[in-house]
Structure formats: structure tokens, C-alpha cells
Amino acid sequence: MTLFQWLVVPLLSFFLVLELMGLRTGRIRPTVRLLRIALWLTAILLTLFPGLSSQLASAVGIGRGVDLVVYLFMIAASVAWLHMQTQHQKLQRSLVELARAEAIRNPFQGGPAADDSTTTNPVVDS
């Protein structure tokens, strides 16, 4: 084993163990947790057997193993970014709905004083 493998495999294994222990907590959906476990296992395997990525790359018609890894990372990062953007938009909509409901429930709390006509309420953008 190379120095890189001696340093990286224990770190990746630590993350794998954390994911396996997290299966019991149930805070993250099991499908997401299993996907993350598969990611850590793949990273460990490709670190231990670097020639495996070259074999997989040539099997799918890509010249080098590192190119395959980069292409897969780019696809995964794009999917993750789109998912986070969607979740962010849902969270923003929920926050606006909550602020509106709270404003209707308590219309005079936190607003300007009745005799203070110089201040205006900020408008929540949806």
C-alpha cells in the first residue's frame, strides 16, 4: 500500500462507520443513507484498487479511470446542487407562509407603533 492509501483508507472507513451507525438513528431517510454508504464503499475500493477505475472506464468507452471518476463526480454534484436548490426554495416558501400566518394571527406584534407614521413595514418577497 502507498502512503496515500494508508492515510485515506482509514479516513474513508471512519466516514463509512459513521454512516453505518447512523442507520439506527433514522434522522436521514434510509435510501439516502444507503446511497452515502455505497459512495464511501466505492471510494474505499477505488483507493485500494486504483486500476479498477481504469478497467471500468475502458468498459464504458472512456480512456482513463480518472476521467470516469471526474465525469461521475460532475453528474453527482449537479444532481446534488439541483436537489439543494429545490429544498432551499421549498424552505423559503414555507418561511413566507409561516410569516404570513403569524402576521395574520398577531397583526400588531412587532410592527411599528400606531402613532409612528414615518416607518414602514418591510414587504416579504415570495
Descriptive account of the structure:
It is a single chain. 71% of the residues lie in helices and 0% in strands. It has 126 residues and is mainly α.
Please state the average pLDDT score: 88
How much beta, percentage-wise? under 5%
Helix proportion range:
over 70%
- Described by the principal axes of the CA atoms, the overall outline is elongated
SSE ordering: HHHH
Low-confidence blocks of residues: none
Radius of gyration: 25 Å
The major beta sheet can be summarized as: none
Q: Let me know the number of strands.
A: 0
Give the helix/strand class.
Answer: mainly alpha
* Number of domain modules: 1
Attribute tags:
126 residues, mainly alpha, 71% helix
In terms of topology, how is this protein built?
Layout (H helix, E strand, L loop, with lengths): L2 H20 L7 H19 L2 H9 L5 H41 L21
Summarize this structure briefly.
With 126 residues, the protein is mainly alpha-helical. Helix content is 71%, strand content 0%. The N and C termini lie far apart (55 Å).
